[in-house]
Design goal:
3 domains, 385 residues, mainly alpha, LANC-like
Length: 385
């Protein structure tokens, strides 16, 4: 089975929606799809699987949808979602009560943990109410998990430290008093391990050359190296892109939380290294080693879809045009191969492709990418809606 459907707009570009269509016809399709999805969830609230409280695949993810919808009252009214919102909101306290700390020693990522995900949802749901007992209790429970970041665990987003750090940033954005020292200690640990692994590889002759397949044009060994399950993944879920993007967010939002000199000496040089691994197609390989010469996966978890947001953030931080050019090349590759047969999810589905295209529009103002994202959405709804 092919990994993606042919993009019909490549042969028929005049069929692309206009900017006016995006705000009318395509928006109507969005409203209809949101209403249908929320109705589906509402009718099944009594049969939720309470064994999975995660954001990635479980109940906290459903609750997070309601939190995002709550920020747009007009959309809630237009989609007639009052019953859905009221029903879903009754589960926030319950999911927090059921949080499970049995695996905290090995996984504190807000994406997949059955403990930190409910804590984050509980805190974010009540951030507007400074007197909420639930909000402060959930915030306190989340912050106390920082001690586990010192345990042996991966640094990546889906199961590791970066997934926990992303939650701290979200809480800080919501107005909670996250201590910069807490973030500093976690970042310091991540950078220490990344630097140690890079130095270890550099000391063993031939190791890095093997990872880059002895390519004469390969960039030099970066100051940070990360691996998950013995593979050097490059993408957002398990690899460099997710780690570096979150570290750049820390720099933007809480710059004093970064160790002195780490942005210029460690984070940005490693980001530039990843930029230079972009393939002629505009995509990125999924990992170093044998996969370096393959151009197969175009998803948020592996490939351009998850790396484009990093390139955009790096451009925003540095003003270096090479990052913007890289992001545009990645977006064009996503446009060609992003209508994925796996489904409509964010991680390895077409919604992730649309999200990446939309992020390019938001960072450049180029309406070309807005219409691309809208067309991707229209195809997604037609095939999977």
């Amino acid at each position: 089975m092919p990994r993606f459907y042919p993009n019909p707009f490549l042969r028929n570009p005049e069929a692309l929606p206009s900017v006016d269509d995006v705000y009318k016809k395509v928006r109507d399709k969005c409203v209809s799809a949101i209403r249908g999805l929320c109705t589906y969830l509402y009718e099944r609230t009594g049969s939720f699987d309470w064994s999975d409280l995660s954001t990635y695949t479980g109940i906290s993810g459903i609750l997070f949808v309601s939190l995002r919808l709550r920020n747009d009252e007009q959309l809630v009214q237009e989609c007639r979602l009052d019953r859905f919102m009221n029903e879903i909101n009754t589960h926030v306290a319950e999911v927090f009560r059921r949080r499970d700390k049995s695996k905290l020693q090995k996984n504190i990522s807000v994406f997949t943990s059955n403990y930190t995900a409910p804590c984050l949802i509980g805190a974010l749901s009540e951030h507007h109410n400074k007197h909420s007992t639930l909000g402060m209790e959930a915030f306190s429970a989340y912050v106390k998990c920082a001690k586990y970041a010192m345990n042996e665990m991966p640094n990546e987003a889906l199961y590791g430290r970066i997934g926990y750090l992303a939650g701290l940033i979200a809480l800080s954005d919501a107005g909670y008093p996250v201590e910069q020292e807490t973030i500093h200690l976690i970042v310091e640990n991540i950078l220490r391990e990344g630097r140690y692994l890079s130095q270890k590889i550099g000391k063993r002759r031939g190791d890095y050359e093997e990872l880059v397949q002895n390519r004469p044009d390969a960039p030099a060994l970066p100051p940070l190296m990360f691996k998950w399950h013995d593979k050097f993944y490059l993408g957002a879920a398990h690899g460099f892109a997710g780690i570096l993007l979150t570290l750049l967010k820390v720099h933007e939002k809480l710059p004093n939380a970064l160790p002195e000199g780490s942005l210029e000496e460690l984070i940005l040089p490693t980001t530039k290294w990843l930029c230079k691994l972009q393939q002629p197609s505009g995509n990125w390989p999924s990992s170093l080693g044998e996969s370096l010469n393959r151009d197969r996966l175009m998803q948020w978890c592996h490939g351009a879809t998850g790396i484009v947001p990093l390139m955009l953030r790096a451009y925003k931080v540095t003003g270096d045009e090479e990052y913007l050019i890289s992001a545009r090349r990645g977006a064009d590759a996503i446009w060609e191969r992003g209508l994925l047969t796996k489904g409509c999810g964010l991680c390895h589905g077409s919604a992730g492709s649309g999200y990446a295209l939309l992020s390019v529009y938001q960072n450049t103002g180029d309406a070309k990418y807005l219409t691309m994202a809208a067309a991707m959405l229209a195809q997604l709804v037609a095939r999977f809606g």
